[in-house]
Amino acid sequence: MDFSSNIASQLNAGTILPEGIVIITLISILVGDLIGGRNARIWLPYGAIIGLFASLISLCINWNNPSTISFLGSFNGDHLSIIFRAIIALSTIITISMSIRYVEQTGTPLAEFIVIMLTATLGGMFLSGANELVMIFISMEMLSISSYLMTGYMKRDPRSNEAALKYLLIGASSTAIFLYGASLLYGISGGETILSSISSSFIGSSHSSSLELAVALVFMIAGIGFKISAVPFHQWTPDVYEGSPTPVVAFLSVGSKTAGFALAIRLLVTAFSSITDEWHLIFTALAIMSMILGNIVALAQTSMKRMLAYSSIAQAGFIMIGLIAGTDTGYSSMLFYLLVYLFMNLGAFSGVILFSLQTGTDKISDYAGLYQKDPLLTLCLSISLLSLGGIPPLAGFFGKIYIFWAGWQSELYGLVLLGLITSVISIYYYIRVVKMMVVKEEAEMSDAVKNYPKVRWNLVGMRPLQVGLVLSVVATSLIGILSNPLINLAHDSVISTPILQASANNIHVSQTEALVLSID
């Protein structure tokens, strides 16, 4: 009896109740599709959405009773992981709502698509709380392989097949590089796999600042850089975004990126705490290149999905400023910006999906004159794009202000100034699309808009798409005005997470020592 209770207390399986609900939902979708066949496709996506909402409720319950360490130290259910897991689950809810009509119109099975997306969601949620090298690798592969499958899901589309092949080849290479770094980290730590034990093994050790540890750092950052689409690990992003099904791109731009940043925080501030200055320097270089290349190359794009791909690269550069700051404000600004980015980016992709369903194109020039045929879509897409550009009083403006303020407090003056300059550049290519949509001259209207059919909201899957689009836009508009509760939520999650407090204290001590030395 004592043995079984001891094992149960060490497993602490209640910590992963949200993931357990997603697993039950996934199995229910599979069984329901097998039993119900084509008749079940009407309720299956709604069943998935209900299951994900139940998972979100479970995360809210865990917030008040966080059971941090579970499964013998492999998973950490602290407040930080709760926030990241909630963002991923919420992004999947909105993505499924925008996927129903899109997948139905292509004639491919919907149930399998939802099952693969739920599997990717599971991988992202587990990765957000992974506290051990094996757990990190398995979670990352669950997310990655599911993403490859979703990218090539439209088998009849050559562009989807090409995107999946490119994504698979580059992703496999990045995984191999990351795994080599993890194995090197395992070796120099003396056979430890739990992140906190790895960090403890370096205290007073000759490996705390060794070349081997630096090599492991570089290799593992390469794997993280692939997940967050940071330059120079971004090569897959434009081609995969252009060729993949648009709902898949929407999920990759939010869910996969969020999981990547969750891994970056947990891995770097724990396992690599002895060489904080080194990974700060590397991420500073990544942030600079991402902000410059992402925003400048986006100016020349003619495809809406490619433009949003380079926008995603640039947004990763902005978020990295909070990671480099390494303070309570820096980490909480990252969380707040990811929450804001969830709604404004998925709102933009919902608009792109609706337009492509009506016209079959994603060329920016084909949006000319859209206001005259579909004012609702024009308004929603304009608000989402302007928020991505950081126009006040929308949510994107407050997200960037919070990020830049955190960087300025940490004396990252160069990064903040570069972020401000590149934000101004980004406004141009976002406003270019808005301007094209609201042209009033009939002669300037594109052929796609001239032949724009009337939107039929009574078709299967159109109502969920409409609800997802409107909710994303409303959240993007209101979060900017009512941002204080979310900022407090992000701040509370940071100050109640021990690993972040230890990292912030170390940075504060280092800055104090540097100040004393400069005075002397």
From TrEMBL:
Membrane in keyword set: yes
Chief location bin: membrane
Catalytic activity: a plastoquinone + NADH + (n+1) H(+)(in) = a plastoquinol + NAD(+) + n H(+)(out); a plastoquinone + NADPH + (n+1) H(+)(in) = a plastoquinol + NADP(+) + n H(+)(out)
Membrane topology label: Multi-pass membrane protein
GO terms of molecular function: NADH dehydrogenase (ubiquinone) activity; oxidoreductase activity, acting on NAD(P)H, quinone or similar compound as acceptor; quinone binding
Keywords for this protein: Membrane, NAD, NADP, Plastoquinone, Quinone, Thylakoid, Translocase, Transmembrane, Transmembrane helix, Transport
GO biological process terms held by the UniProt record: ATP synthesis coupled electron transport; photosynthesis, light reaction
A Pfam family: Proton_antipo_M
Main EC class the enzyme belongs to: translocase
Transmembrane segments: 20-36, 43-62, 82-103, 110-127, 133-153, 165-188, 208-228, 248-269, 281-300, 307-325, 331-355, 376-406, 412-431, 464-483
Transmembrane recorded as keyword: yes
Boundaries of every NAD(P)H-quinone oxidoreductase subunit 2 N-terminal domain copy: 13-100
Segments forming domain NADH:quinone oxidoreductase/Mrp antiporter transmembrane: 130-426
General function of this protein: NDH-1 shuttles electrons from NAD(P)H, via FMN and iron-sulfur (Fe-S) centers, to quinones in the respiratory chain. The immediate electron acceptor for the enzyme in this species is believed to be plastoquinone. Couples the redox reaction to proton translocation (for every two electrons transferred, four hydrogen ions are translocated across the cytoplasmic membrane), and thus conserves the redox energy in a proton gradient.
Family: Belongs to the complex I subunit 2 family.
Name of protein: NAD(P)H-quinone oxidoreductase subunit 2
Native source species: Atelocyanobacterium thalassa (isolate ALOHA)
Gene: ndhB
